[in-house]
């Protein structure tokens, strides 16, 4: 399999191996923690779940900690990224232990949400740090392959962690004890990720010594100035701005489909009182979506040399429009499983492309800030999708109008991004010609060696 060959070639790079292992252990733990959170909030027998409930939960958990995103970028461009990966994972392990204790104590939801908010806020530093660090351990000509393998493998690891947590929930008696157990398992995983990150050299992941700023206070007060400079850099390059706009709209569409799927699993495909069955159905759909992520990792390095990275993003967006409306209109579990697989494929395929464009067209001095803004756009668009879903979706999640609107969003993104790329093709920083890894839309790039 091409994916395995690509992974094997990258794993020959010692520094990539260590960063890759840090990602896998971290995101495996993320999946475990997120299922514990979902089970407590959405699949507790004593709770009813509506679109409004889902939107409120996502707003509480995602929107506030999105505000942390700009700070992560500024600090990632000033702190040793290796140290960030080590100590943030240690901090997460401590915070999830506190969260588990709060579950056992039966504290009110606002207190529980606050603890989860802290865990997920720290998570921003880890994910942004992993993305910003990748070009430091992989040559530029291998970035498409690395972006196909590394983030996708991390997503699959998160899905594997989620699946393991689903299994624990199904075989352990429901209640606070089961939720606390799953949360503590995620904490052990975070400690493992910190241990792996600690095997890397302190200065390996950057930024360069002359970019470091010792005073945290100065860095924090420089957030506004740093974001302004980062935004100006992105706008000057144009290509990363267009790519970020495209992935933001696609993330919004993904968010609407996620809320729809959760409601269908909880209230339509199963008896709302049977929370175990609802969680099992939702877990099955999450699983096939993860297989779609894997398929994207296999296909992206094969297709992008032929049509270019921007062309692949366009194909993913247009395919999302056709497949989701074509398969989803039945609102039956079988076709929706196929739709879930294809949703994973096009979502991850587009993200691999956008990651590559941002990494290669943004200067390293700004990369941390840009990826933090990237994370903020991801979260805000998802929260916006949840809010829109709350206004438009019925309690059982079935809405032909909403599904058609999502398909239209995908189609508009594909066509709009194609037009933008023709005007401003992506070029690596410091180069006047197109990168063979990126290619100009409508032309072939060189094969990935």
What can you tell me about this protein's structure?
The chain has 449 residues and is an all-alpha fold. The chain is 79% helix and 0% strand. The chain is globular and about 60 Å long.
Q: Give the H and E element order.
A: HHHHHHHHHHHHHHH
The CATH architecture can be given as: Up-down Bundle
| Radius of gyration, taken over Cα atoms and rounded to an integer in Å | 21 Å
Total separate domains: 1
**What is the straight-line distance between the termini?**
16 Å
Beta-strand content estimate: under 5%
Shape: globular
Averaged pLDDT, please?
84
CATH level-3 fold name: Growth Hormone, Chain: A
> How helical, in percent, are the residues?
over 70%
Per CATH, the superfamily is: MFS general substrate transporter like domains
Class in CATH?
Answer: Mainly Alpha
**Major sheet details:** none
The structure class reads mainly alpha
């Amino acid at each position: 399999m091409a994916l395995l060959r690509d992974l094997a070639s990258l794993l020959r790079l010692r520094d990539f191996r260590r960063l890759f292992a840090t990602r896998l252990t971290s995101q495996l733990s993320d999946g475990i923690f997120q299922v514990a959170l979902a089970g407590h909030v959405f699949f507790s027998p004593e709770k009813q779940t509506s679109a409004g409930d889902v939107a409120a939960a996502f707003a509480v958990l995602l929107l506030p900690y999105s505000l942390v995103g700009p700070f992560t970028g500024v600090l990632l461009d000033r702190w040793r990224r290796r140290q960030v990966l080590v100590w943030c994972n240690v901090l997460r392990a401590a915070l999830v232990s506190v969260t588990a204790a709060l579950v056992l104590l039966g504290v009110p939801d606002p207190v529980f949400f606050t603890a989860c908010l802290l865990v997920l806020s720290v998570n921003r530093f880890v994910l942004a740090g992993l993305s910003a660090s990748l070009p430091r351990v992989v040559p530029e000509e291998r970035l498409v392959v690395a972006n196909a393998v590394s983030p996708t493998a991390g997503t699959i690891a998160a899905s594997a962690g989620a699946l393991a947590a689903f299994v624990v929930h199904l075989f352990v008696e429901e209640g606070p004890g089961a939720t606390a157990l799953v949360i503590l398992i995620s904490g052990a995983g975070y400690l493992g990720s910190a241990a792996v990150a600690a095997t890397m050299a302190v200065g390996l992941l950057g930024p360069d010594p002359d970019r470091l700023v010792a005073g945290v206070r100065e860095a924090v007060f420089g957030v506004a100035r740093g974001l302004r400079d980062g935004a100006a850099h992105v706008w000057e390059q144009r290509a990363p701005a267009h790519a970020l706009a495209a992935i933001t709209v696609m993330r919004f569409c993904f968010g609407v489909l996620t809320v729809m799927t959760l409601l269908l699993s909880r209230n339509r495909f199963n008896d709302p009182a049977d929370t175990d069955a609802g969680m099992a159905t939702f877990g099955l759909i999450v699983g096939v979506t993860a297989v779609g992520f894997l398929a994207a990792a296999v296909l992206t390095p094969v297709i992008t040399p032929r049509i270019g990275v921007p062309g692949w993003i366009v194909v993913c967006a247009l395919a999302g429009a056709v497949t989701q409306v074509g398969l989803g209109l039945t609102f039956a579990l079988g076709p929706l499983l196929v739709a879930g697989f294809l949703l994973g494929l096009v979502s991850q395929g587009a993200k691999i492309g956008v990651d590559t464009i941002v990494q290669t067209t943004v200067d390293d001095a700004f990369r941390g800030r840009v990826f933090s803004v990237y994370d903020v756009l991801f979260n805000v668009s998802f929260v916006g999708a949840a809010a829109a879903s709350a206004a438009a979706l019925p309690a059982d999640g079935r809405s032909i109008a909403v599904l058609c609107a999502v398909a239209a969003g995908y189609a508009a993104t594909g066509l709009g991004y194609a037009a933008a790329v023709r005007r401003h093709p992506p070029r690596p920083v410091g180069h006047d010609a197109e990168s063979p890894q990126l290619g100009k839309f409508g032309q072939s790039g060189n094969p990935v060696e």
